[in-house]
Amino acid sequence: MKIIGENQVVTITYDLREENAEGELLERMNANYPFTFLFGTGALLPAFEAHLEGLTERDSFEFVLSPSEAY
Predict the structure, then answer these.
(1) Of the candidates 61, 53, 38, which has an alpha carbon nearest to the alpha carbon of residue 4?
(2) How far is it, in rounded angstroms, from Cα 35 to Cα 49?
(3) Which of 9, 18, 41, 69 is deepest in the core (most CB within 10 A)?
(4) Tens-of-pLDDT digits for all 71 residues of the chain?
């Protein structure tokens, strides 16, 4: 099973919500329109990548970024 690490192509699905898990839906990347990116190249927020690093295929994840970690 692949582990997310530097210079790997990663495809994820997620819901981005304001404030917390029950907050307003801001963005949804689902199986029909997943988010695919090259991990570890500095193109994404460092905190976002830090939460994904080490996950394996089919792992679920949930995390909150503070305003200082976001755009």
Answers:
(1) 53
(2) 13
(3) 69
(4) 789 999 999 999 999 999 888 999 999 999 999 999 999 999 999 999 999 999 998 899 999 998 899 87
pTM reported for the whole predicted model? 0.83
- Pair 37, 10: CB distance under 8 Å: yes
- DSSP class of 1: -
How far is residue 19's CA from residue 7's CA, in Å, rounded to a whole number?
31
Distances (CA, A) of 30 to 12, 15, 58, 67, 68: 8, 8, 14, 24, 26
Q: What is the residue-wise DSSP string for 23-62? A: S-EEEEE-TTS-EEEETTSS-S-HHHHHHHTT-BTT----
